[in-house]
Design goal:
The protein contains four helices and six strands. The protein is an alpha+beta fold. The longest helix has 15 residues, at 73-87.
Length: 153
């Protein structure tokens, strides 16, 4: 076997490999990457990148130019993402952020119901980075009782 660096796009191959893997385990994991431009007055002011897989919407990036921050744009983006997650029938949203580098974003995520799930200590740029998550559907005791009791409602 050789290990060769490549600049080729391996996305198709990556999806094929993972699809085979999950199928072998009898699990279905529809994979979808999406990118959204943020347009205001015919000008691109930022973008959002997401990956959907197996019921989880991973928010890879939310970027807004510095000069266009404020005016509740972050609120509108997170509302859009919440609606997208519901359309995709997600049970969970996930993102990475740094409270130190992006305190405004960190506190906005908290305001929208995201909770710190774990922290990567001394990670990128030797700083702490957190994984934050938000559950869309509650799969708690009520659903467990319904399954046990056979209630299909």
């Amino acid at each position: 076997m050789e290990v060769i660096e490549t600049k080729e796009n391996i996305d198709v191959y990556e999806k094929e490999i993972w699809t085979k893997f999950w199928t072998k385990l009898n699990l279905q994991g529809n994979f979808k990457e999406s990118n959204y431009k943020l347009i205001e007055n015919n000008e691109m002011i930022g973008y959002v990148s997401t990956t959907y897989f197996a019921g989880v919407l991973h928010i890879r990036e939310i970027i807004i130019d510095d000069e266009h921050r404020g005016n509740k744009r972050g609120h509108k983006i997170l509302e859009f993402i919440d609606n997208l997650a519901k359309e995709l029938n997600c049970h969970k949203l996930k993102l990475e952020t740094s409270e130190e580098f992006m305190p405004n974003a960190y506190y906005l995520y908290r305001k929208f119901g995201y909770k710190k799930e774990t922290t990567f200590v001394n990670d990128l740029f030797n700083r702490d980075w957190s994984i934050m998550t938000k559950f869309i559907k509650k799969w708690g005791i009520t659903n467990a009782k319904k399954r046990i009791l056979g209630d299909k409602t």
